[in-house]
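Before relying on records like the one below, remember that each one covers exactly one chain. Contacts with other chains, cofactors or solvent are not represented anywhere in the record.
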Amino acid sequence: MIKSIALIALTLTFSAQANCIGEAQIIGRIAETKKTLTSCRAFLSADTRIQTSMVCPLDEGKLYSEGIEVGLVNGHDCRMEAGDSISGILVDNGHQITLD
C-alpha cells in the first residue's frame, strides 16, 4: 500500500514538472540592458535576491545568461534601464523570462 502511494506521488510530481512554468520572486536592480530591433532584455545586478518556486523553479542559469524580457516603449526605448529597481514574479514560458 505504501509503495503504491509513493509511486502515485512520484508519477504526479513528474507529470507536474513536465507541464511546469518556471517561477521565482525577485527584488533587485538592473545592471544593464541589451536592446534589439524588437525587444529589450534586462540583466540583474549581483545584489539581486531571487527566491525560486519550490513546485516549479525558474532556471537561474537561464535567467543570468539570457536576461529578462522587459519590452520596448515608443517602439525603440527599453521599458527599464540600468539602475532601475525590479520586483515581482518572474515567469519562464519556455521561450523567454518575463516579469509578471
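The CA atoms of residues 85 and 96 lie 20 Å apart.
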